Amino acid sequence: MRIYVILNFQCGGKYVSLVVFFAIWNFFMPFLVFLYVPETKGVPIEEMELVWKRHWFWKRFMPVDNYIDNPPEKP
């Protein structure tokens, strides 16, 4: 399907419409990344599940696990 769309852009608009399409896509992409990709700098791999569970969008897709959400206290 994508191939047909790209071919229509190339043949119909003499490459101008394809360039405009990718320019618009590249304009909006940083905003989407900012919204949907959580910050993980300095987060150890063991805590990555907590990062995804606390994110406003991705927490809907993470399974509920009481041990991860409420870890037992260390003695």
From TrEMBL:
Keywords carried by this UniProt record: Membrane, Transmembrane, Transmembrane helix, Transport
InterPro entries linked: MFS_trans_sf (IPR036259), STP/PLT_plant (IPR045262)
Transmembrane annotation, as ranges: 15-37
Family classification: Belongs to the major facilitator superfamily. Sugar transporter (TC 2.A.1.1) family.
Record-linked PANTHER family: IP12678P, SOLUTE CARRIER FAMILY 2, FACILITATED GLUCOSE TRANSPORTER
UniProt protein name: Uncharacterized protein
Organism this protein belongs to: Sphagnum troendelagicum
Lineage, highest ranks first: Eukaryota, Viridiplantae, Streptophyta, Embryophyta, Bryophyta
